[in-house]
Amino acid sequence: MINVKQLINDIYHYHVSQIGSRVNTPVISTEDFDEKPDKFSKIFSWSTNGASQQCITSSSPSISETETQAIDASTVQILVSALMTWGIDNSLDRVCSEKLGLKKPSNQVSFGLRGFNGNLSVAAPSNDHREFWKISQTMTAAHLLSIVGLTRPFLLMKGLEKYTSDIITHYGTMLPEFVGTKFHHSSLAFLSKYFQDPAEDIRHSARTLFSSALTSMPSIELQSIIDYWKQFCADHPKFLSKKVSENTALSLILILHEDPKLVHRLAALELCGKGFSTWEPYILLAVVKTILGLAIDSDSNVAALKAMAQKAIFQIASVNTPLCISTLTYDTNNSKKPAEKNGFLKLISLFIRKKPLLLYSSLSSLVEAVVRSLDPNIAKMRDTVLQTTTNVLHDLVKTFPSIAFHGATQKLAVGTQEGASIIYDLRTATRCHILEGHTRAVTAVTFSGDGKIIVSCSLEEGTVRVWNPSPGLFGMLAGSLTNGNNSKSEGKKFKSLSTSTKPCKTFGFNLGDDGLCQFS
Q: Could you tell me if 364 and 416 are in contact, meaning their C-beta atoms sit under 8 angstroms apart?
């Protein structure tokens, strides 16, 4: 099986050191994925137009980022071109050649697996390309994982998404139809080994291929798998005894905190997220804080852990939104480390872009936490998080109609669920007005062109209110005092603030049932 990580590294350094000319390799023998060495090693050799064989290692010199990106792209094209089965679907071949720049190898390539004690088995060449998929389930799984895992980066390239999806669909779903009888479906045991692989593309590809294999598997074979595994699985997971659920939750917590193996911690995070509704009674708030901490970790060595933690946080928030969002808001408010606060702000931005409805009921407190990060009295913190905070505020304004921004005056307006609208001065990171008048949730707010007039709307109440707030000297002093006192008493309602303003005009309307907003 091709060790994709090592192969890419070695071909990359081959280009860098410019050893020989164009690669011409009739046979590639490679390591099994199961090996997974910690460091790159010599994995294969090739001849280059009659030159002596060269062993490519990771000791070649480094190059610039621009050159790296170009080499990575061509490397992926070379590998995918060699891995593909050409000639069984002409339409796909054309797409690969014309849209993705892939080329059918001039010489036939044979692939093999390295098994027990390092023994290597290589498939004999055949004129019928379909024969390769009739060798074994392990060979099929290994080859498909290589193709799909290497093809996924094309999804990130603008304009290539559709063509890349066609390739993944072809090999992940339609391949058995093109190969015909005696096709060996992917080994589920082999694919399951990579469910928690640190490389996201490999992890995602393994899960996709696993699901696809189950879907396309013959019913008899599928039934035998079900019969085998049902003895290990709970018949009704929702009705697990309290003791079993408690012990499972405790085990997940211990693994999450103490297990040194990355794969175990990844599994614990995934189970914490997916099964949170079951473990919630036995999981303390500290565990949610731990997962939040992992979700904002900037250490590049635990990128896979960070991605899984973020996924778990989204799942936990879907089950218990108040717990998750209030914890995120509290930690953002009280974080004293600039890097940590920056991480929390980025996580908020991720929520805005991926799960905005989860934030809707907590927008006012969340915005307050974001605005406070701009406090000019804490210059170092402000300078560190300024760009991230700006991005978060931009996402908030773009996503939620109940939030508006006026650039010239640097004012931010936020409509609340209680019916008030809060106006912030971003230059001082303080509240400058509380606009009270609506009796139901504020649906939308906006500023006039000069920023002097504010209009708010409540669909539930059926009113539009026009405001002309002018604080004056007393109002500004009261606003500053109120903001200072509010930091000591977060739980106070907006209507208790002394800087409230009344609307100058009110207009009623009736949309009937169309005016009812539903969020799920």
A: yes
For tokens 């779903």, the residue is 173
3-state helix, strand, coil in the chain (%, to 5): 55, 10, 35
| 38-58: pLDDT as tens digits | 332 222 222 223 333 222 222
pTM, two decimals, is 0.65
- pLDDT, tens only, 123-165: 877 777 788 888 888 889 998 999 898 888 777 777 788 888 8
Select from 1.10.10.10, 3.30.70.100, 2.130.10.10, 2.60.120.380 the CATH code of 401-512: 2.130.10.10
Q: How far, in Å, are 76, 83, 394 from residue 100 at the CA level? A: 11, 14, 35
Closest CA to 27 of 118, 101, 122: 122
> What burial letters (b/e) apply to 292-323, b meaning 16+ CB within 10 Å?
bebbbbeeeebebbbbbbbebbbbbbebebeb
Write down the mean pLDDT value for the chain: 77
The answer for 435, left when phi > 0, alpha when psi is -120 to 50, beta otherwise, is beta
Specify the residue for token string 């300078």: 383
- Residue 469: partners with Cβ closer than 8 Å, 6 or more residues away: 423, 432, 433, 435, 454, 501
Pull the structure tokens for residue 173: 């779903």
Domain with CATH 2.130.10.10 in the chain: 401-512
